[in-house]
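G., before I forget:
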Amino acid sequence: MEKIVSDIIHTLKQILPSHRPIPLHEPFFYGNEKKYIIDCIDSRFVSSIGNYVTEFENRISEFTGSAFAVATSNGTSALHAALITAGVQPGDEVLMPALTFIATANAAVYCGAVPHFIDSCPKTIGIDIEKLETYLETATHIKNNTLINNSTGRPVRAIIPVHIFGMPVDMNRLQDLCQKFRLTIIEDAAESIGSFCGTRHTGTFGSCGTLSFNGNKTITTGGGGAVLCKDEDTAHRLKHLTTTARCTKARWEYFHDRTGFNYRMPNINAALGCAQLEQLPQFLTKKRELAARYAKAFDSVKGVHMLKEPEYGKSNFWLNTLILDKPDRKLLEDILETTNSMGIQTRPVWALMNTLPMYRKCPSMPLECAWKLENSIINIPSSINLLD
Amino acid sequence: MEKIVSDIIHTLKQILPSHRPIPLHEPFFYGNEKKYIIDCIDSRFVSSIGNYVTEFENRISEFTGSAFAVATSNGTSALHAALITAGVQPGDEVLMPALTFIATANAAVYCGAVPHFIDSCPKTIGIDIEKLETYLETATHIKNNTLINNSTGRPVRAIIPVHIFGMPVDMNRLQDLCQKFRLTIIEDAAESIGSFCGTRHTGTFGSCGTLSFNGNKTITTGGGGAVLCKDEDTAHRLKHLTTTARCTKARWEYFHDRTGFNYRMPNINAALGCAQLEQLPQFLTKKRELAARYAKAFDSVKGVHMLKEPEYGKSNFWLNTLILDKPDRKLLEDILETTNSMGIQTRPVWALMNTLPMYRKCPSMPLECAWKLENSIINIPSSINLLD
C-alpha cells in the first residue's frame, strides 16, 4: 500500500467512530418528524392540500432570508421550473460548470436549451469566474442586449453557478460579471442550505435559486426541493408552473393556460421537512465541527489537502472533500477501493458533464482545472453523528 | 329552483350522511400507514434507498397482474416515462381523448410530440373506438409500417386510452384497431386501479400502462405513480430513465448514459402506499356499494342518469358520474352552484384539451360527443366512508 493511502486510512480512523459501515452521509430524525407525519395521517392531508407545504415554504424563506420560496418534488424539478421562469428558451445556451451533478445539465435540456460548460476554480471547485470572464470576452459578443456565442450564434441566456458540496461560489463577483455580459443567474444551491456569501444565503443572489431535500442532503423531505425568488409575481408564476398551470378563476373549473408540470411537494414530505428545518442550526454546528476536525487531522498528511471555506463566505460542509495535491486516477481508485472495502464509504466526484455521451458535443471552454479535480477529489464521511 | 336541481339535491341527501361539508373524494388511513412510516423514520430510509419502494412495486404487480411495475413521483411522470420508453419521438403525434385530465396531453408534449384529439363514446365517456376507426381510415395512411397523418405528414405513433373516472375502455377492441393501424398503446390508468376489462386489469393491455396515487385517488402515496409493463427489459429501461439514467458499472462511479429524469418515488411515500394497497379490496367493495346506491336512487330522477359500468368490464367507481340527458351548461352550473354552496362537493369534467390556449391548434377529429359530455357531466361525492 502506498504511504499516502495508509496515511489517509490512519487519519480517517483517528476521527471516525469504530463501527462499520460508515456511510458517506446519513439523515437523522431527532425532532418532531413522527409527530408532524402522524398529524398528516390523522388529518388525512397527505397530498397536494395541507398546511405543511405552506409552513415549510415560510420556514425556508425565513431561514434563507429569501423573500419567497416555492416547494417542489425535488431539486431537479426546482431547477427546471426556475430556468423556465427566469426566461430560458429553447435554443438558448446555459453556462454551467462541467463539474456538477447531472441535474444541472438535464434541467437546461428539459427547457430545450444547450449546456455550455465552464472550467472550475481550484480553490472553491465552483466555476472559475476570472477564467470565465476572459473566455466570454473572446468567445461571445453582445447584440441587442443579448450575449451571443460567436461559434454557434445562439443566445447565451443564463448561467448556473453550483455551490458544490456546500462550498459557496463568490456571488458578489459573479453578479458583476453577469451584469457586464447580460447573463441571468439561476443558482443551483441544491447542496448548500446553510452556506453563505458574507451574510447572505446562497440561492438568494440569482434571479432564482434552488434547493434539494433528497435523502443524502443536509436536511431531507424524502424527496423534495424548493425555488427561492425575490418577488411575489415570480413566486406565483413558479407555483402555477409547478402545479399543472391550473387557473383558479372558478372553484370547480379545470382550465390550464400553459403546459405546466406536476412538481408539487406532497404535504407529508413537507411535514418531514418542517421537523428537519427545526434541527438545521444544530446540524450545521455539528458539520462545522467535523470539518474542523478533518482539516486539522489532514493538515499533517502529505500529498493531500482538505477543501477549505473561502474568506468571503461560509460553507455548510455538506460533504467533506479531500483533494490530492497531484491528480492521479490510479491513486484515487486505490483510496476509494481501500476505504470502501473496509466499510468507510468514500466516493469520487461526478464524471465531467462533457464526457457523458449525450453532452459530448455541447459547447465548452477549456477545462484544465475540472479535469484535474475529477482525478483528485474524494468525498469522505460527513454525517452529523460522527463526533457523537 | 328548477325541478331537476331539487330532485338531484333530494336524491343526494337521501344517500349522503348529514354532516357538511362532504368532499368529492377523501383518502382514508385505516391500516398500517403509521406503522410503516414510523418504520421508515426509525430505519432512516426515507428517500431513494429503502425496501418499501420495491415492496410497493411488487404488490402493485401482484394486484394488477402486471409482470412488472416501476414506482414514480406521480402519474404525470409515469406517463412521460412510459411514452419515452414506448418509443414516442419528438415530432410524432399521439392520439388521446380531448376529454381527459391535462397530464395526458402534457406528457406527450414533454416528449416533443403533438397531441391529436379523439372524440368520446357517450356510453363509457372514454375514446369512441368505432368513430376513431372511421376517422383514421380517411385521415391517415400507412407508409413503411408507420401511420401517417394525411394533413400534417407526421407519424401518428401511439394512442393513450384513458379509463376516465375508473370506467374501462374496451381494450380488446382497441387492441384490434391498433394492430390494424400500427399504433402503440400506452394506457392512462391513473384513475382506474381496481378496474378491469374481463378479468384483466386496466393498464396491462398496452405496451405500458400508468397509475396515479395522488391524494384524490382510490389509494394514495401522498404523491406518486407507477408504470406497468410486460417484460424485464422495459422495466429496467423505465427504472433507469426515472432514476437520472445513472449507470451502475462501478459502485462509486457517477456516469449517466442519457438525459434521464428524477422521477423516483421516495421510500416514505411507498411505505404509505404499501399500507393503502392492503386496504384496496375493501375500498373497492365500498365504492361499488356506493355506486349501486347512487344508480338505484337516480334511476327515478328525470333528465339525468348515472354513468354505468360496461358489460365487458368492471369499474372501480373512483368518481361517481351523473350525466344530464341533454347537455346544458347553465343547468350544469346551477347544479354545481347549489350543491357546493350547501357543502356537497361536486365538480364538472375538465375543459376539453382542444379548448386550452396551448393545445388549440393540435390536430383533432370532430368532437361532437366530447362537447356534449363537457356540458353534461357532474361528479358527485365518492369517498369510501359515505355509507358508514
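Chain B has two domains: 3-28+279-351+375-380, 33-277. The radius of gyration of chain B is 21 Å.

More on Monday.
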